[in-house]
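Folding Query — how this chain folds
Tokens — whole-number codes for backbone shape
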Amino acid sequence: MTDIIFEYKELLASKLEIEQKLKEICDIPIFHDDQHGTAVVCVAACINALKLVGKKWEDVSIVFSGAGAAGEAIAKLMIAMGARDVVMCDSRGIIYKGRKEGMNSAKEEIAEEVSAEMKQILEAEKVSGLPSNLDHLISLGQSEKQKGEE
């Protein structure tokens, strides 16, 4: 067990390749407070919500509005917790396997996990709003600094 942790700040989603490289070359935990700290708090809130309604991760539908660094970290952690019905949207729409516009390595990774069923439901209901079977909506906006970086 290590006594060292590497914490960094102000890394935009478009620069996440730096984080991946750090993880490859370092033998210590790599932690970004805006991403991983937000993810831990969000997942903790969802754990409590799931307990209250008597559901498990694999039984809920989750839509992310916002695909920046925090959204990507939250989605990855929720998927690791067992979430299966996950869809992430950015300013260009639903992120899915095969989408070409506005993708980066982190979005490609999330796209591999996107539920085809949820994608179809969202596309069918996007005119009328969110699907009625939605359990969690995680909405994350961009800071002024991040706008144009997507």
